[in-house]
Structures are given as C-alpha cells and as structure tokens.
Amino acid sequence: MCSNPVERAKRPHQAGRVCREMLYTRSKNPKREVPAFTYQALQKGTVVKPPPKIDIFKRKPVKETVFKIYCSRGDIPVVLAGRSNKQDPTKDRPLRWQCNPEDLDYCYYLPIFVDGLADMDNDTRLLALNGAIDLIMRSPKKVLPVLPKLILPLKRAFQTRDKRIIISALQVLQLMVRLGPCVGQALVPFYRQLLAVCNLYKNINVNLGEGIDPDRSKRIGDVIEDTLKLLEFCGGPNAFINIKYMVPTYESSVFPRCEAPELRNE
Questions:
Q1: Could you give the domains of the chain?
Q2: Which residue of 43, 61, 172, 212 has the fewest C-beta atoms within 10 A of its own C-beta?
Q3: pTM confidence score
Q4: Which portions of this protein are annotated as coiled-coil regions (predicted)?
C-alpha cells in the first residue's frame, strides 16, 4: 500500500481481497538480518540480529590434562587393580602403588592427581580420583602446605560444567577439609575462585517431600549443600560471610545458634 495520498488517489480502485493478499505477501517476505549498531540497521527491509544466547550449563571439556600426559609417559606410580565402589569411592580404592604413597612428594604429585579430576576419560578420572583420595587419607597433615597449588586444578575441574566432574572435585574438597588440620580455615581466602560454580548448581535438586534420597552423593545440589555446610563449620567465624558473598541463597547452619534464653532467678 502506498502511503502518499496523491498516488493513492490516482491508483485505480482494487478490491479488498486483492489488498489483503498484497499485505499478506508483503508481510511474508523475509527480512535481511543485520548486526546491531551499524548503518545497515537503518535500512528498510532489515531486522536487527538478536544477541546470541549463552548456555551457562554448557559443558566445557578439557582437551588434555597434565595427569593424562604423565600417565601416558608412565610417570605416575599407581595403576588400577580392579573396580571401585560406586556408592562411596572412599571405602574401596582398588589401586596398586609401585612405591609407598607416604614417601611421595605431595607438593609434586597431589596437584597432578587433582588435575586429573577434569579429564573426560572415565578410567583416567577414576584413577585420579582414587589416587587423590588415597593420598589424602594416608597423610592428611601434608595437605595444608600443598593447598595453594590445588586451587587451580580444582577451579579447572569446576569450570568444565560437567556434573560428574564437579561432584568428584567436591568429594575431594570435602575430604581435605574433613581430615586435613586447619585446611578449612586456609580455604577461606580462596572461596572466590572455588565457589562460583556452586551458585549455579545449588538449586538443582529433587523435591521428595517426606521421602529420603538414598543417592544423595549423586545429586549435585545436595553435594554442594553438604560442602558449603562443611566449609562453614570448619572455616571459622569468617567462613559464612565469604560463602554468603559467593552464594547469596545459602543459609547458615552454624551461626547464629538458637539457644533458649536463660531464666533469671528473682
């Protein structure tokens, strides 16, 4: 349809059906998508291209980990000796060490094992998980000096956005805090590097009502909730403030404590 009234008056009269068909065909004509904030966006018959959607839960696999490179060269003194317990990997660690694990240099080997948690290969990740758990359980007192070197491998495992890898990394983190002396308090300055992914997956859980979930260790939301409670309990008085800064929806399970008021004897 012409917007000029003079040209519209000179044009011969057309039936309403013809006008509706012209409007319909004109509306169906594809418009050219152009990028935003350009001169092309001012042209007729164009549509500004919308911004791309970002999938925050998209997996970001690691191409190759340091642990896998060392395994291919034969520099890791441990091999798998059988199957592990799927319910609790800390109970059964089917590993065969080629030397005494307590004699290893934890500053060198423990970060390599933790780095293997981000590997996409199941066998490699299982070897790294069981090896890291075995090293931590054998000598918990050696974890604290190595703690600054473990932050980057744990952060790399969290950034993969893979639920299985995140759960494995959180299990190792819980074990370090539970067994290692003063590890919980030493982790407080590193909450900003580690707890960013917890804010994304914290609410991904299953509402069972009055039921009990036997597979709590496989639910990423429940594992994150248990990890945050453990970090708050073992991190001292400043742990809750730093956790709340990274995970605003977290509610304290330690402070403040609900205590009955003392009765005064009058």
A1: 66-205+215-246 (1.25.40)
A2: 212
A3: 0.74
A4: none
CA nearest to 172, candidates 111, 121, 122, 124: 111
The secondary structure of the chain as a DSSP string is ----HHHHHHSPP--HHHHHHHHHHHHHSPPEEE-SSSGGGGSTTEEEPPPPP--TT-----S--HHHHHHHHT-S-EEE-SPPPSS-TTT---EEESS-GGGS-HHHHHHHHHHGGG-S-HHHHHHHHHHHHHHHHH-GGGHHHHHHHHHHHHHHHHTT--HHHHHHHHHHHHHHHHHSTTHHHHTGGGHHHHSTTHHHHTT-----TT---TTGGG-HHHHHHHHHHHHHHHS-TTHHHHHHHH-TT---SSSS---PPPPP--
C-alpha span between 79 and 156 (Å, rounded): 24
**Helix (H), strand (E), coil (C) string for 27-85:** HHCCCEEECCCCHHHHCCCEEECCCCCCCCCCCCCCCCCHHHHHHHHCCCCEEECCCCC
For the segment 226-257, what is each residue's pLDDT rounded down to a tens digit? 999 999 998 888 899 999 999 998 888 775 54
Tens of pLDDT, residue by residue over 77-95, are 888 776 555 555 445 557 8
Please state whether beta strands 32-34 and 46-48 pair in parallel, antiparallel, or not at all (unpaired).
Answer: parallel
